[in-house]
Design a protein that fits this description.
This protein is an alpha/beta fold. Helix content is 41%, strand content 25%. It contains ten helices and eight strands.
C-alpha cells in the first residue's frame, strides 16, 4: 500500500502546489498556529507537509521548520514554494512516514499536521512517535477534517468515494482519545469549517466519473441530522459544501 499511496500522491502534487495563497489562508491553519502559541525559534516538525503550506505559515512566525512527507514530489513542491516565498535559508525536507519519524528522542518543540492525519495508516502510532521526539512541554497539534461525533462512518464513506487512498477522518472525541492514549494532555480543542466548491474538491484528486456521481448523490441525500453541519447548497449552478475541521493542541 505504501508505494501505491506514494505514486497516487505524487500525481496529485502539481494540483496541490497550484493552490497557492488560498491554502495558506485557511481558518484551520490560522487557528492551529494561534492555539499552538509557539515561541520564535521553536523547532517544528510539519508531518505530511504536502506542498508545504503549513510549514511556510509556521516559518513566518519565526519557527524553525522541518518539512516531512512520504512523497518525493510533494517535498520537491515544498522546497520550491519555500524558495519562492523567500523564507529563511533552504527548506529542510525529510522523506518519511508519519508513523516513523527519524528524529532523536526529545529533540523537537512541536509536531504538527494540517489537512493530513486522515491519510495516516496508524494515527495512534503517529501520536506515540510525537510523544517520543518531543521535549518536555512540547506541543502535539493537528487540524484536519473531522466528522461530528457519531457520524464517522458517513463522512469516511463520502471521502473514500472521492479518494480511495483516504484512510480515516476522526471525530473530535476520537482525536482526544488518541492524544490522551499517547500520554498527552489536551490543552485546546476547537472546530472550524472549510468551504468547498464541490467540483473543484473532486477535481483536486482526479475523481473519476463513477465515483464522482456516487459522492454527489451522497451529498444530495445527506441525512437531515448533519445537513446543517455540511450545508450542501447550489450557488450559480455550482454545488458548494463545508467540511468540519478539528483543531486540537496537546502538550507533553
Amino acid at each position: 500500500m505504501g508505494d501505491e499511496v506514494r505514486e497516487v500522491w505524487g500525481r496529485y502534487a502539481p494540483a496541490f502546489a497550484s493552490e497557492g495563497s488560498g491554502a495558506e489562508d485557511r481558518d484551520s491553519l490560522r487557528r492551529l498556529i494561534e492555539l499552538c502559541s509557539l515561541s520564535p525559534r521553536s523547532l517544528v516538525c510539519d508531518v505530511a507537509s504536502g506542498a508545504g503550506y503549513t510549514g511556510f505559515a509556521f516559518a513566518r512566525t519565526g519557527c524553525r521548520v522541518l518539512l516531512t512527507d512520504p512523497t518525493h514530489e510533494m517535498l520537491l513542491a515544498g522546497r520550491t514554494g519555500w524558495s519562492e516565498r523567500d523564507l529563511p535559508g533552504d527548506a529542510i525536507c525529510v522523506e518519511t512516514w508519519a508513523e516513523h519519524l527519524p528524529f532523536a528522542d526529545r529533540s523537537l518543540n512541536a509536531v504538527v499536521a494540517h489537512r493530513a492525519p486522515h491519510q495516516f495508516a496508524d494515527a495512534a502510532a503517529w501520536a506515540a512517535e510525537a510523544h517520543r521526539v518531543l521535549r518536555p512541554g512540547g506541543v502535539f497539534a493537528l487540524a484536519d477534517q473531522s466528522p461530528p461525533d457519531g457520524w464517522e462512518q458517513w463522512h469516511n464513506e463520502l471521502e473514500r468515494w472521492r479518494d480511495p487512498t483516504h484512510e480515516r477522518a476522526r471525530s473530535p472525541r476520537e482525536w482526544r482519545e488518541i492524544a490522551e492514549g499517547a500520554g498527552f494532555t489536551v490543552r485546546e480543542a476547537d472546530v472550524v469549517y472549510q468551504s468547498h466548491d464541490v467540483e473543484d474538491w473532486l477535481d483536486r484528486v482526479d475523481c473519476p466519473e463513477d465515483r464522482r456521481a456516487h459522492a454527489l448523490q451522497m451529498l444530495r441525500d445527506i441525512p437531515n441530522e448533519i445537513r446543517n453541519v455540511y450545508q450542501p447548497q447550489t450557488f450559480n449552478g455550482r454545488l458548494h459544501m463545508r467540511t468540519p475541521q478539528c483543531v486540537l493542541v496537546a502538550t507533553l
